[in-house]
Task: inverse folding
């Protein structure tokens, strides 16, 4: 695969994601004037040379909060995305590969979970937990968002199951586990990769939604928590734009970039979707093949 | 998709049409609701006073015995429909005549109330001493009513003649303050309406009332999920006494979704006067030049009326040590709480159960507080921990007492949505962390927090104690220090939630109950020293009894510190300003 095959969209999206990652992971090591929790002023002080983005309702530096908040949001997104993808792939592959009663059972369960609005489950679990660490929240987000991945992966796996190379592997005496690990999953990696990107963006947004309701990780700062306090202290009415614009912008940017990254990856992995390919065939646009099934997680719409 | 030749709308045109129609309907709807909530045409807005900040959910009943009755019929909201005998004035501490015209004390354990001779119910029948006796005696037959503890302090209530009520106090333990406080907060109810209801209803407080009959100047007109509307009763008996009626002919309380919706409506002039926490209210007149005002035109803007406390559970290991509690008290940055969490509506809290401004100032002993109390001083907190307690700081930055007790992890809780108190606790958590405590915040639902606090199932909590009233500061001292009548953890307590006990408190409280002036100041000083030595609760900030904010876009004449024609409150004597309002001339 040569670099020329990446579209411009991919570079833009990857660039934004990399910038946000850098901001969340490296910036706190570079800008060390203020630490999280340092009191640098009063209630919603204007931006100044001392506090670049002003202060929040507690007199904390908004810029510092933004760096550490981005870090928390990314951490939750990545951990929750990884766990959710792992769960989804495990359930989907097993169901798709084995078929029969196992498939019926697992997919039945998945469909039941899918039918329950995940935000309701999220809110209920978060209330029940009382105090929530960053990791607990990531796990809670993961266990409510894997079903769509499982369903999509099952479709892929049951198509891979019928390919000839599996017969060859079976004839050479490979066991089920080895078959799944070496002969099924690798053929779906491109899809899993995209599902992961979507899961991360979904988790980041769901974390923000929960935190805005006041159910975010306790004793820390995340982009959603910043928005929660900005709303509670009516920064919109009092004109303290620095309290709510930066976290909103960052969240939007991150979610947008991740979705764009996912769709440009789709283009890359699925040759039929490539734009230059489409350009060559402009004569018959109606003949364009439909994209593969790619459900959007419920939370991503928010 | 194939193109059709017939002039049928395309899918795109159809969708555009639908969305246009939708937008049109939404716009029309806004216009319609705008009319109805704005009071309609014909200058009705100019005759209507919009009030906010008391009602947040659709009203179900207007039964004054129900604590969740619709505004203003729950006890001591505002004397609009039902009235109390006297109205407490938070500026001078006096009881102003309401249904009662005179309060006398013939001897140490008797109080006598003379009723307004012309007072009538809204249905025309006279208000008599029997109505007063009937209402107060509900505390005996229906102990679930909000004033159920009335007979803890009073022995009997009798109608001496149709316009005189005599109240005998408990001779062994007289407490005139608590009885007077009840006389200023209990709405008097008509016996001829309630006696028949009582016969057929067991739980009187649960009886649904949708047409309340009171003695006040306003009648309930209608109510819905979005507002409560009242109309002036032009036959109000008080017109003869005051010489005039309240200025607004109509009174509406819109029910907002939350604080910020109410604040926005207030800023736009859709609400005239309200009781809401409004962060940075001064920006409304400084930056936006809206005709908005508060009692003081500069910080603290509001008159302090209560003290939100950091209640410490004195039964928890570690927190049971008074020195640990004192170190905690020295570690909290009170000025920062006042500045951020309370949006400058408070002075930094002092280490006293007594309010340093207003009526209680006469009892506040600044020297006593300076000598025995605490203030924000991390060095002193460290000195208590290291030198007096011999605590050692662990590698995690948290102190451990010599017996191995770690100063945490403790949680500090208050209900979610009480944003000012939540922020106050965040400041507590941050500033005590620097001093070597391990305290985290926790914001459960309100019902959950209430149960936890009352049952003693908490470490630290931000909670309220008695505000300024005819019984303060006595009642607040009881709330903070008295262990009598406080059950063990696991059963609901209604004061002293941290289960503090000190044998010296009870006799001092009994003595203070009958004292006045310098004697009372001395006894309260002794109680305050017990408080300061033990820190069972830590005053975090000062809060007004009612927040008081007005917008003079439609009505003017609201009292301020410069024109103190009435106290800045809605309850009690706050009714006075309603008579002084004038339509704003534009």
Result:
């Amino acid at each position: 695969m040569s670099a020329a095959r990446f579209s411009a969209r991919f570079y833009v999206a990857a660039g934004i994601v990399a910038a946000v990652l850098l901001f969340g992971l490296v910036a706190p090591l570079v800008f060390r004037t203020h630490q999280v929790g340092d009191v640098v002023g009063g209630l919603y002080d204007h931006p100044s040379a001392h506090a670049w983005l002003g202060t929040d309702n507690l007199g904390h530096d908004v810029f510092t909060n933004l760096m550490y908040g981005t870090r928390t949001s990314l951490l939750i997104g990545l951990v929750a995305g990884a766990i959710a993808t792992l769960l989804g792939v495990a359930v989907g592959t097993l169901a798709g590969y084995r078929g029969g009663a196992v498939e019926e059972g697992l997919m039945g369960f998945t469909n039941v979970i899918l039918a329950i609005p995940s935000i309701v489950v999220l809110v209920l679990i978060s209330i029940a937990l009382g105090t929530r660490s960053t990791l607990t929240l990531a796990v809670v987000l993961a266990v409510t968002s894997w079903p769509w991945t499982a369903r999509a992966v099952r479709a892929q796996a049951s198509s891979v199951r019928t390919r000839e190379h599996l017969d060859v592997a079976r004839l050479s005496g490979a066991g089920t586990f080895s078959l799944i690990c070496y002969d099924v999953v690798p053929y779906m990696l491109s899809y899993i990769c995209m599902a992961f990107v979507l899961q991360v963006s979904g988790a980041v947004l769901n974390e923000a939604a929960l935190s805005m309701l006041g159910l975010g990780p306790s004793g820390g700062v995340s982009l959603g928590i910043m928005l929660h306090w900005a709303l509670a202290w009516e920064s919109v009415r009092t004109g303290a734009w620095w309290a709510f614009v930066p976290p909103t912008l960052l969240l939007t940017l991150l979610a947008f970039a991740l979705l764009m990254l996912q769709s440009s990856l789709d283009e890359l992995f699925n040759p039929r979707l490539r734009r230059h390919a489409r350009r060559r065939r402009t004569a018959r646009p109606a003949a364009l093949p439909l994209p593969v099934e790619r459900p959007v997680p419920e939370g991503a719409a928010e | 998709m194939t193109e059709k030749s017939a002039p049928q709308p395309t899918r795109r045109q159809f969708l555009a049409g639908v969305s246009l129609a939708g937008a049109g309907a939404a716009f029309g709807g806004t216009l319609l609701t705008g009319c109805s909530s704005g009071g309609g045409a014909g200058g009705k807005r100019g005759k209507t006073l919009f009030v906010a900040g008391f009602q947040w959910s659709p009203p179900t009943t207007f039964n004054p015995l129900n604590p969740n009755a619709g505004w203003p019929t729950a006890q001591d909201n505002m004397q609009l429909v039902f009235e109390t005998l006297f109205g407490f004035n938070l500026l001078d501490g006096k009881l102003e005549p309401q249904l009662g015209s005179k309060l006398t004390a013939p001897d140490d354990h008797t109080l006598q109330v003379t009723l307004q001779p012309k007072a009538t119910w809204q249905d025309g029948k006279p208000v008599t001493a029997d109505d007063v006796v009937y209402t107060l005696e509900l505390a005996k037959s229906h102990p679930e009513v909000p004033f159920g503890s009335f007979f803890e302090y009073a022995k009997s209530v009798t109608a001496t003649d149709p316009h005189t009520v005599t109240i005998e106090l408990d001779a062994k333990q007289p407490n005139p303050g608590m009885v007077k406080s009840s006389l200023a907060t209990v709405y008097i109810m008509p016996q001829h309406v309630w006696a028949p209801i009582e016969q057929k209803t067991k739980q009187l407080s649960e009886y649904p009332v949708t047409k309340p009959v009171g003695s006040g100047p306003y009648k309930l007109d209608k109510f819905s999920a979005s507002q409560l509307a009242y109309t002036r009763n032009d036959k109000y008996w008080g017109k003869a006494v005051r010489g005039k009626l309240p200025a607004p002919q109509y009174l509406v309380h819109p029910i907002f979704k939350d604080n910020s919706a109410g604040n926005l409506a207030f800023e736009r002039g859709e609400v005239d006067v309200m009781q809401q926490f409004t962060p940075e209210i001064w920006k409304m007149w400084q930056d936006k030049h809206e005709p908005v005002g508060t009692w003081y035109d500069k910080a603290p803007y509001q008159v302090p009326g209560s003290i939100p406390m950091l209640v410490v559970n004195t039964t928890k290991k570690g927190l049971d040590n008074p020195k640990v509690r004192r170190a905690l008290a020295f570690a909290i940055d009170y000025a920062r709480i006042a500045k951020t969490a309370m949006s400058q509506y408070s002075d930094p809290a002092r280490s006293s159960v007594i309010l340093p401004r207003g009526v209680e100032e006469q009892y506040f002993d600044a020297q006593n507080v300076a000598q025995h109390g605490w203030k924000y001083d991390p060095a002193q907190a460290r000195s208590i921990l290291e030198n007096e307690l011999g605590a050692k700081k662990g590698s995690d930055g948290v102190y451990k007492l010599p017996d191995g007790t770690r100063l945490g992890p403790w949680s500090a809780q208050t209900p979610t949505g009480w944003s000012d108190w939540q922020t106050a606790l965040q400041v507590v958590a941050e500033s005590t962390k620097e001093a070597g405590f391990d305290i985290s915040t926790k914001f459960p639902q309100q019902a959950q927090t209430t149960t936890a606090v009352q049952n003693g199932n908490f470490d630290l909590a931000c909670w309220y104690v008695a505000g300024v009233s005819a019984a303060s500061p006595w009642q607040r001292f009881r709330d903070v220090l008295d262990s009598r009548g406080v059950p063990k953890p696991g059963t609901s307590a209604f004061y002293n939630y941290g289960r503090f006990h000190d044998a010296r408190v009870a006799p001092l409280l009994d003595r203070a109950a009958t004292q006045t002036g310098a004697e009372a100041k001395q006894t309260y000083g002794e109680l305050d020293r017990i408080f300061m030595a033990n820190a069972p609760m830590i005053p975090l900030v000062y809060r007004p009894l009612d927040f008081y904010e007005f917008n003079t876009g439609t009505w003017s004449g609201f009292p301020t510190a410069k024109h103190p024609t009435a106290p800045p409150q809605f309850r009690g004597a706050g009714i006075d300003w309603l008579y002084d309002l004038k339509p704003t001339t534009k």
Remarks:
- Chain B is about 30% helix and 15% strand.
- The first helix of chain B runs from residue 11 to 37.
